[in-house]
Amino acid sequence: MSEKTMRERMLAGEPYIADDPEIARDSQRALRLTHAINLADPTDGETLRGLYTELLGSYGEGAEIRPPFRCDYGYQTTFGDRSFANFGLVVLDVATVTVGDDVQLGPNVQLLTATHPLEPAPRRDKWEAAEPIVIGDNVWLGGGVIVCPGVSIGENTVVGAGAVVVSSLPANVVAVGSPARVIRQL
């Protein structure tokens, strides 16, 4: 049995070295496509839809992500039907990022799956890992929300502007703050 490549390790959710040549090619592809997205005429929905469809794992019917947009790889991200992201979405999609249907993302939201070792030696050696993020259907994340690795946000939940979500949130709640905490049931 052959040893896994760094890309296979990354896709399996195992620690990997980020500057591996195969992973670097995937990153270059995403950089090229996000550059094209960010230079495209923002009123040309057809061109943007084509670029997002090429870049992302899936891009739902009626979805819209307003440029500028940044991601690590693209193919690890699925963006649901009728979901909307305002300007400045950043998706570090080392692990999978699932955005459900009818989701609303305010400006400058960050969905961050990447993790790094706490110990200095493996961090210096460029070891990384990641944990997936799941955003349920009909979630609203206010402007500047940061969602950390391994977090799931249940359907219909609202997260207030500027919140930092470090642990999973249930469905049908309002959460605010840093770290985000539930303040109300919906």
Could you give the topology of this structure?
Elements lengths: L5 H6 L4 E2 L3 H19 L5 H11 L2 E2 L4 E2 L3 E3 L5 E3 L4 E2 L3 E4 L4 E3 L4 E2 L4 E3 L1 E2 L4 H5 L2 E4 L2 E3 L4 E2 L4 E2 L4 E2 L4 E2 L4 E2 L7 E4 L4 E5 L1
Helix pairs in contact: 2-3
β content, as a range?
25-35%
Outline the low-pLDDT stretches: none
CATH topology: UDP N-Acetylglucosamine Acyltransferase, domain 1
- How many structural domains does the protein architecture include? 1
* SSE order, one letter for each helix or strand: HEHHEEEEEEEEEEHEEEEEEEEE
Strand order of the largest sheet: 3-6-9-14-17-19-20
Cα-based radius of gyration, to the nearest Å: 17 Å
Query: Quaternary arrangement of the chains shown?
Result: single chain
CATH superfamily: Hexapeptide repeat proteins
CATH architecture: 3 Solenoid
* Biggest sheet character: 7 strands, mixed
Helix content: 10-25%
* CATH class (first level) name: Mainly Beta
> Average pLDDT across residues?
96
* Beta strands, count: 20
Gross morphology is globular
> Please, how many helices?
4
